[in-house]
Amino acid sequence: MKKLATALFIVLSFAGPRAVLADEPKTTGAPPNGEIAQAVEVQATVTAIDQQSRMVTLKGPEGNEKTIHVDKRARNLAQVKVGDMVKIAYVQHVAWHVKKAGEGASGDVTAEGAEARAKPGEKPAGAVGQRVNFDATIEAIDLAKGTVTLKGPQGNSQTIKARNPANLKKVKVGDVVNITYTEAVAIKVEEAPK
Question: pLDDT digits over 115-135, tens only?
Answer without folding.
Answer: 998 898 899 999 999 999 999
